[in-house]
Amino acid sequence: MTARALRSRAAALLLATAALTAVGTSTAHADSPGGWVAAGNTVYSTLTAGEGIATRADGSVLTRGLGSIPLRLRIAGWNHVGDPDIVNGYVFDAYQGGDSATSKMFEVTTPDGHSYDYVHPLDQGELLNNSFATVSPDAQWLVEGEWGTVNRLQVFPAPVTNPATPATGGTLAQAGQISLDKAVTDVQGCDFVSATRLVCVSDNDAKDVFQVDLPHALDGTPVTGRVATLFQVPRSSICSGGFETEGVDYDANAKVLRVEIISPSVCAVSTTAYAYRPTTG
User: Fold this and answer.
1) What is the pLDDT of residue 281?
2) CB 103 within 8 A of CB 146
3) What is the pTM (predicted TM-score) of this model?
4) Closest listed residue to residue 107, CA positions, set 120, 99, 116
5) Rounded to an integer, what distance in angstroms lies between the CA atom of residue 127 and that of residue 18?
6) How far apart, in whole angstroms, are the C-alpha atoms of residue 202 and residue 247?
7) What digits encode the pLDDT tens for the residues 171-204?
8) 270 CB burial (10 A radius; 0-12, 13-18, 19+)
9) Confidence category of residue 20, pLDDT binned at 50, 70, 90
10) pLDDT tens-digit map of 100-113
11) Residue 150: CB partners within 8 Å, gap ≥ 6?
12) Helices marked H in the chain
């Protein structure tokens, strides 16, 4: 997302004074890979939840929005926070700066509340966007995504939890990326549902939720992921206009997948997280 788009959204949120979001349901196709069935929804404030969602070990939900960015990071130029992840009590956040940014940043907050910042200088051809952070179940590899139509996901050693990274912040270099066998568009979030499968959400016209299957667990070497569409995020609101998908989270303990979408127009003050359960397993 560009700085201009961020400013537009912030202005819309400040101007909007009320919103109602209608309840909707959706069921994944029975023949979709790793099928999912709808299990209700929850409405949050977009200001604090309109960028992403993650689940703590106790089952409580962590959300991120434009209002979640600490002042010290805003002052440093990090004006966008992406979809976060939580692994073993460590919170991983993805930050990006303005349109002229030459780096992106990942912040890790430890279980005891200490935060450490890891800056990644952009490699040649790399986009400045930092839409999400998701960490492999073994806590060794962090996956993030850019913007537009892409045929890859980027992989980094997971800050703090991978011993190859500096212990208290520093510079972060890429590892072997995930090449995709099909191009995907405007990926807003991904989360691991197993060591070899991610579920992601796209802000394309269809608002697709798709999965990426890996040939083996990430180990820092390049791999190719197989993309398959699962279902579309429901679009239901009293307001008319364009919806925007946002974060995705898989709660492995409860076996619940959550996918966020922001309603149009003045209803954009509300973000709905739709919940799904697997049809098998």
Assistant:
1) 55
2) no
3) 0.88
4) 116
5) 35
6) 9
7) 999 999 999 999 999 999 999 999 999 999 999 9
8) buried
9) very low
10) 999 999 999 999 99
11) 180, 183, 184, 185, 187
12) 3-15, 46-49, 71-75
Statement: residue 168 has pLDDT above 80: yes
- CA 28 – CA 210 distance, rounded (Å): 11
* Contact indicator for 86, 93 with CB cutoff of 8 Å: no
Which strands make up the sheet holding 197-202, listed edge to edge? 134-135, 141-144, 149-157, 178-185, 223-232, 208-213, 197-202, 187-194
Q: Which residue intervals of 24-79 are DSSP H helices?
A: 46-49, 71-75
Q: What domains does the chain contain, in order, with CATH numbers?
A: 3-278 (2.120.10)
Say whether pLDDT at 23 is over 60: no
Burial 148-183 (b: 16+ CB within 10 A, else e): eebebbbbbbbbbbbeebeeebeebeebebbebeee
For residues 20 and 37, the answer to whether their CB atoms sit within 8 Å is: no
61, burial (CB in 10 Å: exposed 0-12, middle 13-18, buried 19+): middle
Residues forming beta bridges with residue 118, ordered by sequence position: 106, 170
Residues 95-150: tens digit of each pLDDT: 999 999 999 999 999 999 999 999 999 999 999 999 999 999 999 999 999 999 99
C-alpha distances in Å from residue 250, one per residue of 40, 118, 200, 225: 15, 25, 10, 19
N residues, the chain = 281
